[in-house]
Design a protein that fits this description.
CATH superfamily of the largest domain in chain B: Thiolase/Chalcone synthase
CATH superfamily of the largest domain in chain A: Thiolase/Chalcone synthase
Strand order of the largest sheet of chain A: 3-2-4-7-1-8-11-10-9
Strand order of the largest sheet of chain B: 5-4-6-7-1-8-13-12-11
Distance between the termini of chain A: 29 Å
Structural class of chain B: alpha+beta
Shape of chain B: globular
Strand content of chain B: 25-35%
Helix content of chain B: 10-25%
Oligomer: heterodimer
Shape of chain A: globular
Order of helices and strands of chain A: EHEHEHEHHHHEEEEHHEHHHHEE
Structural class of chain A: alpha/beta
Largest interface: A-B, 38 and 51 residues
Distance between the termini of chain B: 37 Å
Number of domains of chain A: 2
CATH topology of the largest domain in chain A: Peroxisomal Thiolase, Chain A, domain 1
CATH topology of the largest domain in chain B: Peroxisomal Thiolase, Chain A, domain 1
CATH architecture of the largest domain in chain A: 3-Layer(aba) Sandwich
Radius of gyration of chain B: 22 Å
Number of helices of chain A: 13
CATH class of the largest domain in chain B: Alpha Beta
Strand content of chain A: 15-25%
Chain lengths: 390, 469
Amino acid sequence: MASNGIKDRVAIVGMGCTQFGEHWDKGSEDLLIDAAYQAYESAGIEPNDVDAYWLGTMGQLSGLVLSVPLKIDYRPVTHVENFCATGSEALRQACYAVASGAYDLAMAIGVEKLKDSGYSGLVVSSPANDGTLGNMSAPASFSLLAPAYFKKYGLDPAKGKEVLARIAWKNHRNGAKNPKAQFRKEVPMEAILSSPKVADPLGVMDCSGVADGSAAAIVCRAEDAHKYTQHPIFIKALSFVAGPGEGPLAQDYDFTTFREVVASARDAYKQAGVTDPRKEISMAEVHDCFTPTELVLYEDLGFSPRGTAWQDVMNGFFDLDGTLPVNPDGGLKSFGHPIGASGLRMMYEMWLQLRGEAGPRQIENPTLGLTHNLGGAPGRCVSFVSIVGR
Amino acid sequence: MTVGIIAYGAYVPYRRLKRAAISEVLGIAAGKGERAVASFDEDSVSMAVEAARDALRTVAPANVRSLVFATTTPPYAEKLNAALVAAGARLPLEIRAADLTGSPRVGLTALLQAADAVRANGGAALVAVADCRIAAPEGKAEQAGGDAGAAFVIGGDPIAEIVASASVTREFLDTWRAPGERFAHTWEERFALTQAYGPLLGAAVRRVLEEAKCTPADLAKVIIDAPNPRAVDELARAVKLTPEQRADPLALTVGQTGAAHASLVLASVLAAAKPGERILVASAGDGAEALLLKVTSRAAGYTQPRSVGRLIESKGDVPYARYLKWREILPTEPPRRPDPDRPAAPPMLRSEAWKFGFVGSKCTACGTPQLPPQRICIKCAARDRMEPYPFADRAAKVATFTLDRLAYSLNPPTVNVVVDFEDGGRFMCEMTDCDPDKVEIGDEVEMTFRRMHSAGGVHNYFWKCRPRR
C-alpha cells in the first residue's frame, strides 16, 4: 500500500487558458477550441501530435463533447468529473497516462459554461432520490466554517468578518493585475464588508465569481520535455483524496478543517519531499470558493499553525509581495470559477510564474508552486494537491 | 369492556396571525385575538403526525391495530393520507388505516369509529385529526379559522370512558367545496342556524344525555363545536348550561380548527379533568356527532407534558403578507434558482423508516448512533453491524449554523443547522419555527415532521428541527 507519486517523471510543456467571465457570445465548444489551440501553439505541436485527451466538465456524458468540436482524429477522450476539482482530476489522469508509457503526449482540458443556466450561483442536479438530501446552497455549506472557526479561536464575529474580507481584498488586488481574470478591479474593504448577505456571515463579495472559461495543459514524459519547450515545468506531486463524509455524520468534526485537504497535503508533501511547506513553497493557488475556505486551507496545507492563519492574513503574509503569495492570479474569487476549468487555470498561473511570464504579478524567482483544488462541502469533499517546480 | 381514551396528544403550530394584522392590510373590520397558522412547511398530515407522536408517548405502537386520519384538507385527493401519518408515527405494517373527510364533524366520527373497532377487535386504535383551514381573504372564515391537530388512542382501561354516543345525518347545503377549489362556499347564515345546526346538534345532544341517563347539570364540561358560534350559544341556552360548564372554544387564541376542533378542545379539557367528571362533546356538519365521556381514576396518574395550554403559549407572529405567500394565495417572484425535484418512489420506499420515521442506526460493534442509517460504521468501519435507532424523540443541540439566502424557500432565509444529539449522532438539517436572527450555537432543539416542498404533485415529507417548545 503506497502512494508513490511520479516526482519529476512528467512535465507540462504547453498550456492555454481563455479569458474567464461572461462569454455570452461563446458556447462551451468555442471555449474548448480556444483553450486547446492555445495549448497546441504553446507546445509548438499540431493537434494530431496529441495521443490522448482527458476532459473535465460538469454533468456531461462523454468525450464527444470535446472530440466533435475539435474534430479529433479517432483518439481516446476520457470525460472525468470530481466536483469542483474536476480540472485537476483531468490533469492527474493525463500525467499518469504518459508516465505509464501508454502515450507520449496527452492533453488535459477543462471547460464550463455556467452563465447559460439563467440561475444565480451554481446549480447541480442530483440523481433520483428519496427527498431527504436537503437543499443547501454552496455558500451556505461553506459559511458553516466561519462561526465555528471564530468561536474556536476566540475571534469576535466583527473581527472574523474583517479577516474574511481581507482575503477577498487580496485576491481582487491580485486579479486586478491579470488580463484574463473575470474581475480586474481592486475592491475596497468597506465594499466587501457591506456587500449583500448570501449566507450569513458571508456576503456576495465573499463568493467566487460564476464564470465561463476553459484551460488546457499538454503533458509528456520528463525526458521528452525539452523537445517542446525551453522551460517546461515538472510534476513533483499529485495527490487526490475522497473522504468518508464525516462532517454531517460524526460529532467530533468541528468545521474548522477539511480532513481531506490535510490528507492530500500530507501525501503530496511526501511525494515531493517537502518537510516545511511554510518555508519551502514559493507560491500557491488554493481553492478560495468562499473566503472562509481559504482561511481554513492555510492551516490545512500547513502554511500557518492551527489558529493563526487569521493573523497571517492580517499581516500580509499571503499577499503578492508577502512571504508566501497565495492566489497570485486572483483565485476563484477574482479570476472566476468555471468548475471544470478551475484546476487547470490554477496550474496555468504556476506555468506563467515558474517561466517568468506573469508580468506585473511576477513573483521573484519561485521554485516550488502548489495548487489546491477542492470539491464538495466542509466535512464531505474531495481534495487535490499538486506541487510543481522547474 | 370499558372503552375510551387511553392517551391523547395535541398540536398547535407555532405561528400566530393577529386578526388586527389582517384588517390592517385589507382595510376591513378587525376581529379580536389571533389564530394559529400552520407554517409554510406544515399541512394537515404533518400536524397529525405531530399530534399522533404526542399521543403515542405512553402507548406501544405495536398495540395499535388501526388508524383513522380525519381532516377536511387532505394533501392528497387520491393516495392514502393516513399511510403517511402511520409512517411518521412509526406504526406497524399490520394496521387498518383510513382517511375520513368531507365535513368538520369527521374528527368525532373518527373517534367513534375507533371505539367501535376496539369493541369489535380489541387492541388499540389511533385517531389523528388535523386541519389546515384556508379561506378567501376578507371573508369571515379566514379570521375565524385556525390550524391545529389532535390525536387519541382508544382502547380498554381508559382515562376517559365513552359512556354514550349519538349521531345524526341530514342532507342540507351550508358549506361546500368542489374538487380543485381552494376556498369553500357557504349559504346564508340564518338558514343553517335555524334549520340545521340548532335542531341537529340539539337532537344529538339530547339523545346522548338520554342514553347516558344524565341531565345537563351532571356535566363538568361541555364542548359544542359548530361552524357558527351563535348555534353553540343558542344550544347552550336551550339546555341551560352555566358559563363554567362551557369549555373555552379557543376562539381568541387558536381559531376554529375544522375537523380538529372538537378534539383539540377535548384534549385541553382532559388535561384538567378529575376522575368522576362527565364531559360532553358534540360537533356539527351535515348532521352532528355527540359523545359523553366519564373521566376514570386512571386520569389522575396521566400527565400531558406538552399540553394545549403550553402549545398556545409557545408562539411567534407571522405578518399577513407572508402568510398569504405561504398559502400561495399571493403569487410572488420566484428566485433565480431551479425548482426542487419531486422525490422518487423507489428510493422513498427503500428508506421509509428513515425518511418518514427518522430512524437511524446504531453500530452494535462500537455503539455509535448515526443518521441517516449507515451500513459501514463511520466510527469503527464495522460492516453490517447496525441496528435501527430512532432519533425522532431525542434532544439535540446546535453545533453550527448558517442562514441560507440563496436556497429555494417559501420562507427565506433558510436556517440550516448542524445538530448533535445528546446520546450521540449528528445531523445537518433545516431549523424551522425560529427567529433567524436569534439562532446560536448550543441552542436546544427537537425534531419535527414537515412537508419540505411539493413538486410534480408529490408532497415531500421529511424532518426538520425546531427550538424546544
